[in-house]
Structures are given as structure tokens and as C-alpha cells.
Amino acid sequence: MKTMRFALLAAAALFVAACLPVTTKHPVGTTVGFKADPALLGIWKGRGEEKDDKDGYITFLNNADSTMTALVFSPTDDQGEWETYTLQTATVGGNHIMNARAALKNGQPITGDEANTLFPLLYQIKKGSLTLFILDDDTTKAAIRSGKIQGAIDPGDMGDAHITAEPAALDAFFATKDGAALFSKKLLTLHRVD
After folding, report:
1. Closest by CA position to 14, among listed 2, 1, 4
2. DSSP strand E in the chain: where?
3. Are 91 and 77 in contact (CB under 8 A)?
4. HSE on the CB side for 24, CA within 13 Å?
5. What is the helix (H) or strand (E) element at residue 176, kind and residue range?
6. What is the DSSP letter of 65?
7. Side-chain half-sphere of 92: how many Cα atoms within 13 Å?
8. How far apart are CA 68 and CA 91, in angstroms?
9. Strand 68-74 vs strand 81-92: parallel, antiparallel, or unpaired?
10. Which of 42, 148, 175, 177 could be joined to 92 by an S-S link, Cβ 3.0–4.6 Å?
11. For residue 77, is pLDDT > 80?
12. Span 5-17, mean pLDDT?
């Protein structure tokens, strides 16, 4: 378990707020289709919650295959840290979802389990601000245990949650208010850089 500050956002692969984020077996939005969201394009700047956090940036770029790339970087006194993520964006039930998978870290390809880790984020864009939310670990575990969504929980008190529902069930759940409510952990608020 570890806390996250924006200066460490790139190095920690957006894994924040105490635990690794909740992962999914399939990207949210498979049944409705993925389409790059032009509202995300450009450079966004933000800062963590701690007073000694540094500014960090996320640049969203279009790819030729309807995916997007997010370049996440945080300048530091030396060379800084940076990562890229491949994103699939979709809207299910009015909820804007970004499915993220790490691709590069400081120029090196992501390998092993991390290369196959897919985690969804809910995003909201309002008046030049972009707010990203991740699935709340405890609430998601409760939804899995109650049968609202199919998934698995790693052993132990702090075991990570993994949603294993098939695409149709996954999309149907996250199109509902109950599904959207699981995205209750604010990751970050960024502001567009002109």
C-alpha cells in the first residue's frame, strides 16, 4: 500500500490512493465501440494534493486505430519521469470511460503483468478542467461480493479487485448509476494548457 503524489504519477503507472487500481478483463465500452474523444486532445496540467508536489502534465494524442495515447510526465530537478498509456475511450450510459494500459516507462516498453493490466477511469471535462476518477477498491469489492458485477478479489485483507465480467455485462453495469458510483476515488484534476 502506498500513497500517490502527482510527481510520482508517471512512475507509479496511475496506481494511486493506497492500492493498485481495480482492473478489468475487458475494456469498458466494447459493445458500444471505441472512438477517440477530441475533447481530450492537447496538454493538461495538474498538481497533487501535497504541498511539495510538483506540477505534472498529461498530453493526449490521437492514434490511427481509434485509440489514443496519453503521455504522462512530471518534470523534476533531474530528468523527470514519463510514461505513455494506450487508451480506449467510450461513452456508456452517458458515462465517459477511459480504459488505460501502460505502454512505455522512460522510453522502455512495459513488460510482464503490468503490460497486460487494463484499468478503467471515469473522466469529466467541464470548463477547461479534466477530472479523472478510478474505481474505489472497497466499493468495487462489495459489488463483486454481492454479485452486482462478476469479479475476483486477491487473498488477504488488502487483496486487489479484478472485474472479470464479459463485455456485454460489463458495459450494461457501467451504464447504470450503480456502476458509475464505483468511480468514487478522484485521481486528479487537470487544467487545459493553452
Report:
1. 4
2. 23-24, 42-47, 55-62, 68-74, 81-92, 95-105, 108-109, 119-126, 129-134, 151-153, 161-163, 185-192
3. no
4. 26
5. none
6. T
7. 31
8. 15
9. antiparallel
10. 175
11. no
12. 38
